[in-house]
Structure formats: structure tokens, C-alpha cells
Amino acid sequence: MEAVAQRSVLLGIPVDNLDMGQALGKIFKMVDAYKVDKKKRLVATANVDFMVKAHDRKNKNAANSLLSILRKADMVTADGMPLVWLSQLLGEPLKERVTGADMVPALAEKAAKEGKSIYFFGGADSSARRTAKILKTLHPDLKIAGFSAPMIDMEDEIENMVEIARINVTEPDILLIALGNPKQEFWFNRYEKYMKVPVSIGIGGTFEFISGITSRAPEWMQRTGLEWIFRMATDPGRLVNRYAKGLFSFNRMVMPLLFINSIAKRIKQRNSDVSANDLDTKEDLIDSNRILWDNLKKLVGVTTQLFDAVKPPVLMLDFKNVSALNSEDISTLMTVFLEAGRVNLKVQVINLRFLPRLLLKVYKMDDLLQSNDALMGSEAQLGNV
After folding, report:
1. Helices (H), 235-370
2. 3-state secondary structure at position 91
3. β-strands 199-202, 290-292 pairing
């Protein structure tokens, strides 16, 4: 039975609680897993910009697609310090910030030691080629599968198929996609079925940082979360308006979340939510499509076991006697929806009181109360990017 990964749910997006070493270890395990299951996996490095674009009201179709892609991603790391701070305030603290700019050099070092190959795709000017050359100089044993920086038109299927053929023929273990958010995530989602790469990682402007085209903030600014100020100062014409809007939108979502979460936390501590019934056996749970929330939480891994064994048309999660939810509950509930989506199982939440419902709304998970179709990767929902 597969153990549930520890994640923090930040504004409706599950972010893996990993340090850099653990993130690299997981990536290389996914590379090896491809030999067995042939599943192509996506790693996203999320920051404030991701969170804002995933909930952009002006472009609802694209926003819903990005939200769905990030929820289905095989690993999501916190690329920005605001996400780490938010996780701490919510009570599910992430171990550390894991950025694309830090991950790629570390990834190259580990790939050189383990004999894995990397393809560098995207980036401005000749940054992909220059990055590959720099990393090869630092790690002579690194296998460079290839590099290319085309001007990608998402709608030009012929052009994209040519690029994918160019990538596939080199048989890379890891594909670094530097098309910027959300284009790189949309690109992977749209053309993944044609690819033959075990792991793809969206890395935004990392090639520009490594190649020296774009200067990175001093280390102390990176540690204190002030890197955005440095970047804005170096390119004010392009970034001032973007960062101002992004931070305003992010704070507008975060403030009610923190307020409602603090209320729920106090109520949760004051009232011990106890189910009316004693803990059901695993056999009882598997024979029923209605599960009390407290019972579900007490059985580690029961979600995966239940979905694989029964696959009822609708799984009903009964929140009877539950007065409040904490951040751990939120993470567990997200896992339930994610696992259900993978086996095309509908989840229906019943007897949900006002405060838990409000908490799910500010956590940006209220869409899951309607349906979990967004987690099933349907072409109708994800195709229009």
C-alpha cells in the first residue's frame, strides 16, 4: 500500500514538503519508475505567480486548467519564500524553499553521478545551450541529451510535434522545460502523450540565471524572501506592474484564509470531534460507500486501499459531528480527491457544517465539493490552453 506523501495545501494546490535532497531523490526514483510503468511525470516549481494565475478570474478556463495540472503534478515544490511562510502560518510548515534555479545545478551534479541524461528546452536567446555548456564544464560526466530554444506556438501542432520528435530521439531521462509559467505546464499537459521522457520539470527562467543573462539576487535576499525586490529593481519596466498586481492578488486570497484558519484552529482545539460510532474495521469500510470522516482519518492509507478494491460509483464522505478542520485535515481531504480522481471515482461530501465549508472555500478547495472532474484530466477541460 502506497504511503500518502506529506504535503501542505496552499490555496488549493498541494505542495510537497521536501528539502532539496529529498526532492532530488524523488525525481530520480520517478526516472527509474518509468522503466516499469511508462508513466510520464511532471514536476512544477511553484511561486506566488503560479498561485495567482491558477485562480485568475479573468481567464477562468485557463485558470481551471492550470489549477488542475498543478493538482495532478507528481511533485510541486515551493519556489518562493511567501509559500514557505504561508505554510508555516497555516500549521503545515514546509521544510524549505526548493527553487528551479537551485534545483537544476544540483540535479546536474546528481545526474552526472548516476549516469542520467538531461535535455535543455526553452529559455531566452542561447541560454539553454550556454547552461548546458556551463553544467557540462562543472560536471564532465554529465550526459547532455540535447538543447533547443524554439519560439513555441501552442496552437502549431506540427511545430510542436517536430520539437517533441527532436527530444524523443535523444532519449533523455529528464527534460527541463523553460517556457515560463503557465506556458510550460500547459505545453506538457497538451503534448505529454507524444513524449517519451520519464520526468519533465518546469523551471521558468532558470537558464537565464545559470547562464548569467539575468543576475540573481544576493544570497541574503534569497534567504529572506526579498529576491523579488532585486529582480524588480533590475527590470522595473517589465516587472513592477506584474509584481504589484501579483502580490496584491496573493494577499487578497491569503488574508481571509489566515483569519478563518485561526478561528477553525481554536474551535478544533476546544472541541474534540468524536464520531458517534466506534472505528469501523477496514472490511466494513470497503463494503460501504459511506465513510465517516474520523474513521477514514484513523486508517492510514485506507483511501488507496479502498479505491483499488471497490471503486464504487460514488464515495460519500460524512462529516457528521465535525465542527472544524485543521491544516492536516485539509491535506488529507485533498489526497482523497486526488486518489479518487486517478481511478475516476466521484466523491460526495455530506453533512458539512458552515465553518468547515467556509474553510474549504478560503483554502480554494470549494470546487472539489461540486465535483472532482478537474482531477481526472479530461480533454474537454484541459484541452483549451
Report:
1. 236-270, 282-286, 293-298, 302-309, 327-342, 354-362, 367-370
2. coil
3. unpaired
Cell readout for 117 is 541524461
pLDDT number for residue 14: 95
Determine which helix (DSSP H) or strand (DSSP E) holds 29, and give its type and residue range. helix 20-37
Question: Closest by alpha carbon to 202, among 77, 116, 110?
Answer: 77
Each residue of 31-45: pLDDT tens digit?
999 999 999 999 999
H-run or E-run covering 43: strand 41-46
Q: How far apart are CA 360 and CA 326, in angstroms?
A: 10
Check if the beta carbon of residue 294 is closer than 8 Å to that of residue 273.
yes
Cell of 200: 519533465
Give the three cell numbers for residue 115. Answer: 549516469
pTM: 0.86
CB 186 within 8 A of CB 385: yes
Mean pLDDT value across the chain: 83
What's the DSSP call for residue 233?
H
Residues 6+ apart with CB under 8 A from 98: 18, 19, 20, 23, 45, 77, 78, 79
Q: Which of 271, 310, 269 is nearest to 289 (CA)?
A: 310
Q: Work out the number of other CB atoms within 10 angstroms of the CB of residue 252.
A: 10
The confidence band for 4, taking pLDDT boundaries of 50, 70 and 90, is very low
Beta strands in 84-237 (DSSP E): 117-122, 143-148, 174-178, 199-202
DSSP strand pairing (7-10 vs 13-16): antiparallel
Task: Name the grid cell of 170.
Answer: 535523444
The DSSP symbol for 199 reads: E
